[in-house]
């Protein structure tokens, strides 16, 4: 899942981004509304965690632009105000969910995951294929009943492959969904991560390389 965090309190923004990355999400961070609009015009995001009171371009205007563009991106709006009227206004502007500050990080993560599931075709909360079971909420992976410990990027790549339901996923698509925009597009990080993931999943290999196209399970 790819997430954009838009928050002008830099310490909070960076803390949220770090926490979401530990949950195997690809996260970009900006600190004002103008930068948010710039990123949205370049990258496809599953979820935007959007502070409402932003400098340069207000969060409300960022939300309106996302709605105007007709993008499938889901918006989790943050604000220091928890008044019912503010929540209603935020939802009417185009937010899909609303979370007042201060918030528990576990709740933020759960809401981001729930919104991420709504950006694509409905899938069961636990993904299963070829003897592999992946639970995004519990961050657990099993193969044939045996638990497998994965690093965050390995988990993210496996989740993307399982969500494709057998379709081929290109290296570029994996890079977009599992890494943030600071990753060099010419790096071999995808190939190396897939190799490590194959080794951890064990034999027989379930990740198939499709020459010239990508990978599938």
UniProtKB/TrEMBL annotation:
**The keyword DNA-binding is annotated on this UniProt entry:** yes
Q: Which PROSITE patterns match?
A: OMPR_PHOB, RESPONSE_REGULATORY
> 4-aspartylphosphate is carried by which residues?
51
Key word NADP present: no
Tell me the SMART domains matching this sequence. Answer: REC, Trans_reg_C
Which keywords appear in this protein's UniProt record, sorted alphabetically?
Answer: DNA-binding, Phosphoprotein
Q: Note the InterPro entries from the entry.
A: CheY-like_superfamily, OmpR/PhoB-type_DNA-bd, Sig_transdc_resp-reg_receiver, WalR-like, WH-like_DNA-bd_sf
Residue ranges: DNA binding: 124-217
Specify the superkingdom: Bacteria
Residues forming the Response regulatory domain are 2-116
| Pfam families with a match to the protein in the record | Response_reg, Trans_reg_C
Where in this chain does the record put each OmpR/PhoB-type domain? 124-217
Protein's recorded name: Response regulator transcription factor
Write down the species. Streptomyces endophyticus
């Amino acid at each position: 899942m790819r997430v954009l965090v838009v928050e002008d309190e830099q310490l909070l923004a960076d803390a949220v981004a770090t926490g979401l990355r530990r949950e195997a999400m690809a996260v970009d961070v900006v600190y004002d509304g103008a930068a948010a609009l710039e990123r949205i015009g370049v990258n496809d995001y599953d979820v935007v965690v959007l502070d409402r009171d932003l400098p340069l371009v207000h969060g409300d205007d960022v939300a309106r632009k996302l709605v105007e563009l007709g993008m499938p991106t889901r918006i989790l709006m943050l604000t220091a105000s928890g008044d019912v009227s503010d929540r209603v206004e935020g939802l009417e502007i185009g937010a899909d969910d609303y979370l007042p500050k201060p918030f528990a990080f576990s709740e933020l993560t759960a809401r981001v995951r729930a919104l991420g599931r709504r950006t694509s075709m409905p899938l069961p909360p636990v993904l299963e294929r070829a003897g592999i079971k992946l639970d995004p909420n519990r961050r657990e992976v099993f193969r044939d009943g045996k638990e497998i410990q994965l690093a965050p990027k390995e988990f993210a790549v496996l989740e993307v492959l399982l969500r494709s339901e057998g379709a081929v996923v290109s290296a570029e698509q994996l890079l977009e969904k599992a890494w943030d925009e600071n990753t060099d597009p010419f790096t071999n990080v995808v190939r190396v991560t897939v190799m490590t993931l194959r080794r951890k999943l064990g034999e027989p290999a379930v990740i198939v390389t499709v020459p010239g196209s990508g990978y599938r399970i």
